[in-house]
Amino acid sequence: MKQYILPSLKLTLVMIILCAVLYPMLISGVAKLSPGAGKGETVEVDGKVVGYKLIGQSFTADKYFWGRPSAVNYNAAGSAGSNKAASNPDYIQTVKDRIDSFLIHNPGIKKNEIPAEMVTASGSGLDPDISVKSALVQVKRIAATRQLSEDLLRNLITANSISSFVAPEKVNVLKLNIALDKLK
Amino acid sequence: MNTEISGVLLSFALTLLIAFPLGKYIANVFKGEKTFTDFMNPVEKFIYRFSGIDPKKEMNWKQHMAALLSINLVWLVYAFFLLLFQADLPLNPDGNPNMTPDLSFNTAISFLVNCNLQHYSGESGLTYLTQLLVITFLQFVSAATGVAAVAVLFRAFAEKTTEKLGNFFVFFTKTITRILLPLSIVIAFVLAFNGTPASFDGKDSIVTLQGDSVQVSRGPAAGMIAIKHLGTNGGGWFGANSAHPLENPNYVTNMVEIIAQVILPMALIFAFGFFIKRKKLGYVIFGVMTAGMLSFMIPNMISELSPNPALQKLGLADAVAMEGKETRIGVAASAYWQVMTTVISTGSVNSMHDSSMPMSGAMQMLGMMTNCFYGGKGVGLLNYFVFLIIAVFISGLMVGRTPEFLGRKVEAREMKIASIIALLHPFLILVGTALSAWVSVRHPEADWAVKPSAWLNNPGSHGFSEMLYEYTSSSANNGSGFEGLGDNNIFWNVTTGLVMILGRFLPIIGPIAIAGLLARKKYIPETAGTLQPDTATFGIMTYAVIMILAALAFFPALTLGPIAEYFQIY
Questions:
Q1: Could A38 and B198 be called an inter-chain contact, meaning their C-beta atoms sit closer than 8 Å?
Q2: Range of the domain at B469
Q3: Contact B462 A85 (CB under 8 A)
């Protein structure tokens, strides 16, 4: 074994330089040409950064569309799911509480209209999207809060939804809310 | 839902489409034939000269293993100390702390052995320096170690009787320069241009549209995420792994990442067939592995796509099992990933496995318990080879002939090694789980960083599954987890560290020893009575051996975990 230690040390050194220094520097250098220059693409409103395009945000006010529940409260300093199992009674209680709070904030909506997505936490805690169904169920609340017509909001959702031939249809919540603010 | 299923089928089709020619290419690389990557020749020559390696010097199986273990030892020491002192080294913009010795022990082993079990979160547990110089580095070299090991198997059966099985350092170097680096660069570019960060800037602080102050973790992640999948490593840059929107920005990147992790294990099977000039054997192995994968994929897919009964009772509009899943990825692509990442030993996740349905949890664990349906890069084929030898032996007994494989007699010594390796995996998993269950019941207040009474994130049988999953993942060198488990404490760091290291090197040494011993034996020409390993009959035989061994070893433990949970909620 001894005869292999010295070549191993030298080979390790070369590979560190190749795989852990040159390679990341190459990627980092080329990524400067990408949107966001490799720092993450930000979203601005009136010249002020209000968020990252891919990172979800917490929306709790009635006048905004809400995203999904988050185990890290949408603070992207970290990321995590709840890791709760379907068989966990405490978890089911949490979901029930979320349903109750959703019903209080959304008068006129019945329980059987709420998609499960809106009361279950995402994997990362930073999910930037909701499905179109989850956006539509919030239309009544936002129309009442903002005194806008429901049709106008539905059109806004359609205009901001993204679908492709294999991926699930989705709406970016931050983008939708920025468009919503611009309506007034 | 149908569109989601077509996304999954498209992923698999594309994987196969890439893996087949890639297999041919890998066989040519290891044969030393002309390939389009010959422009790397001068780079390789420089590497050999600098390191004092004579690329023409061939090794026998023992020398191969000595070289493999020597260089792995160097990496272990290097990684351990860098992690231990990372806070005071450069490239730490977020001011993250040093690792504790037990966490450093666990993390160094975890990445060394291609497991990538993570008892920390990338955002707070590592610095950019260690993310690159330890994590990314080990993701490259541990993957190349697996491929270099399986190349010995290729050589052992390519010739009739031989001691000379190529040079470990050459296999290792070529794997990096001609397979891993070029492919990683392509994938990293795709990720970077879809929004994955790649710059060295630290955490950003922003005020959101609603007026909350939050931070956003970033870093040179794109390169690491490429090799993490390509090398079947699986350790995430961010805590949430590929569920994180920066680590896996959209459906396209999701597809790229899932394809990237499957292509090399699959390509190596074809490469084996091409290399030993028995293409049909490669196809039969591929067929058995695909059948094995589907045996877990179909139940997992059904259980994830069916409504969650616990949510159904609440009377919502639907009861889709979206807990722990991301909207842009959806249920079908999450379920496909859950099975692929566990059969293939990647262990990256795009949904939280802890929140998947009970039957899915069972399938994910079975994927790791069998650990050879495609399996990890290189090591998957080596594990399969062990079962293949057992199947040869049993078939031999059934027809009353001395068992032979590809013209070599399989005798007592090889069988002993195969049996020990086949039994090691259940031994490590079950003993570990039993120990942890005992500690959590008998010593709930032990004074560790996380008290045993606080280990489990879910009560009852699912809590047991969390412990069973952790040891299964460690021994299979998978690295995914039921992440609710409170695992960053001395008990879990040390025990899983030991399980990982045993679960890596013994299952490499064992099959290589068998291959080396067989290669040395006198070649017996085929006769009418010779067992044909490249037939469907023998394929079914191997499948049965793998499944029966897994069922015998693991069914009792699965009954206490996911199966009990299933009956609790359905």
A1: yes
A2: 10-204+215-569
A3: yes
Tokens 């009353």 correspond to B400
Q: How many CB atoms lie within 10 A of CB B164?
A: 12
Average pLDDT over residues A111-116: 96
Instruction: Report the 10 Å Cβ neighbour count for B378.
Output: 28
**Residue B345 and residue B265: Cα distance in Å, rounded?**
10
Contact call for B181 and A19, based on CB within 8 A: yes
- Is residue A98 scored above 80 in pLDDT? yes
Q: Would an 8 Å CB–CB cutoff place B312 in contact with chain A?
A: no
Do A146 and A63 meet the contact criterion of CB atoms below 8 Å apart? yes
The Cα–Cα gap between B413 and B406 comes to 17
Three-state DSSP at A171 gives strand
Establish if B210 belongs to a structural domain.
no
Chain A residues in contact with B175 by the CB 8 A cut-off are: none
Provide the pLDDT for residue A164. Answer: 79
Q: Is the pLDDT of residue B4 over 90?
A: no
Comparing CA positions, the residue from B167, B121, B127 lying closest to residue B148 is: B167
pLDDT tens per residue, range B263-312: 999 999 999 999 999 999 999 999 999 999 999 999 999 999 999 999 99
Find chain A residues with C-beta within 8 A of B112's C-beta.
Answer: none
Distance CA B516, CA B238 (A): 41
Q: Residues B470, B476, B478, CA angle at the centre, nearest 5°? A: 70
Domain-embedded: residue B537: yes
Is the pLDDT reported for residue B538 higher than 80? Answer: yes
Element (H, E) at A139: helix A139-146
The alpha-carbon gap from B543 to the nearest alpha carbon of chain A, in Å, equals 32
What does the pLDDT look like over B397-423, one tens digit per residue?
Answer: 888 888 999 999 999 999 999 999 999
What are A38's two structure tokens?
């490799």
Burial class of residue A128 in the structure, from the number of CB atoms within 10 Å of its CB (0-12 exposed, 13-18 middle, 19+ buried): buried
What does the block give as tokens for B18?
């890439």
SS3 B5: helix
* CB-based contact, B250 to chain A, within 8 Å: yes
> Phi and psi at residue B416, in whole multiples of 5°?
-60, -45
- The pair of structure tokens assigned to B281 is 């054997």
d(C-alpha A52, C-alpha A174), whole Å = 9
Of B555, B158, B565, B142, residue with least CA distance to B379: B142
DSSP per-residue codes, B323-358: TT--TTTHHHHHHHHHHHHHHTT----SS-GGGS-H
Residue B274 placed within a domain: yes
Q: Confirm or reject contact between B4 and chain A (CB < 8 A).
A: yes
Whether A140 and A150 have beta carbons less than 8 Å apart is answered as yes
Measured between alpha carbons, how far is B482 from A85 in angstroms, rounded to an integer? 10
What is the spatial distance between Cα A178 and Cα A182, in angstroms, rounded to a whole number?
6
CA atoms within 13 A on the CB side of B21: 4
Burial class (CB in 10 A: 0-12, 13-18, 19+), B307: middle
Q: Which residue of B has its CA nearest to A163?
A: B328
Rg from Cα positions in chain A: 23
Comparing CB atoms, the residue among A26, A84, A112 nearest residue B323 is A84
Q: Which of A168, A167, A152, A180 is nearest to A61 (CA)?
A: A180
In total, how many domains does chain B have? 1
Crossing angle for the helix pair A173-182 and A150-160, to the nearest 10 degrees: 130
Q: Is A130–B355 a contact, with Cβ atoms under 8 angstroms apart?
A: no
Residue B1 is predicted with a pLDDT of 59
Q: Any idea which residue has 């020990």 for tokens?
A: B420
For chain B, what is the radius of gyration of the CA atoms?
23
| A40 → closest Cβ in B133, B141, B216 | B216
Positive or negative, the Cα torsion across B268, B274, B277, B281?
positive
Whether residue B2 is contained in a domain is answered as: no
Q: What CA–CA distance (Å, rounded) separates B506 from B130? A: 28
Q: Give the separation between CA B494 and CA B491, rounded to whole angstroms.
A: 6
